[in-house]
Amino acid sequence: MPPAAKPAPRTLRSGSTSQGLLVTLLGDFWAGRSVYIPSAALVDLLGEFDISTQAARAALSRVQRAGYLEGARDGRTTAYRLTTEVAERGTRVGARMMRFSAETAEASPPWDGTWTLVTYTLQADQAEERRRIRRALRGLGFGPLQDAVWISPKRRADRVLAAIGDEPALSLGVFENARLADGADIEISRIWELDVLAERYRTIGAQLDEIDRATSARTSLDPTQALVLRTEAMDHWRTLMPTDPRLPPELLPRRWPGWTARRRFAKVYDRLGPVAADHVRTIVAAHSAEAAAAVHHHAVADAD
Fold first, then answer.
1. Long-range own/partner contacts, residues 282-287 (CB < 8 A, 24 or more apart)
2. Which residues of the chain does CATH 3.30.70.240 include?
3. Is this prediction's pTM over 0.90?
4. What is the fold, at CATH topology level, of the domain defined by 1-109+192-304?
């Protein structure tokens, strides 16, 4: 008799708040849907993640007060959905995550060897503005060549101007199509801290591989486990995504672990999707047939 399949880990990581988890579930399974979901159904969903009824109801209250949810009442039943602004932002983020996860080195367009160069000058006492500018440039995939000189291998002038060009005390220079002089070199790994990013990719890649091996060995998946593992894998992946500057393959080390991690995430996320969505429908159907019928799930394979 073959040995029993090793149980899949209960969670990929810990630390997600119940409020964040609630928004994640609403954005993942009801993206683009305007239906209201009864509060009792949302409490039951959070219960699948070992969140108590009291904590789940407190999370609903906090998330609504924070402006993420809008509510409706029908008799004694209260129901919620994401506000239009939050839902639209979540849809954009979800689409970016699917495209990011589907990227491969082979399908990446060839890099033309040019850079976008940003220089700026601030007064010495403008420390907070300096931090804001650095955060914005990091978010656009730039790395610091020097303290106030940042570079990106992609055309980003319009985005830079939109993000930081309205600061009145800022002296800003943005140059596209810049090229390095012959013989010049830059420290790609240092500028973008690729060693740190590679370690994060190796860590999540190993965890995803463990989930993949454990769940693929089974003829049927436990619905609760499929929901929990898929949601927490997505939650972790989504926090990693903004830290990746998405450099061209020509600038990355050989055997970059980011490509392997992408493949593993797509495999786990897409395989667990149908089982997780069916489980959500089953839970929600006990409270609202309309909300259950609106449940759907994303797939990396469908990224446009």
1. 282/223, 283/41, 283/44, 283/45, 283/48, 284/37, 284/38, 284/41, 284/44, 284/45, 286/41, 286/44, 287/37, 287/38, 287/40, 287/41, 287/44
2. 115-178
3. no
4. Arc Repressor Mutant, subunit A (1.10.10)
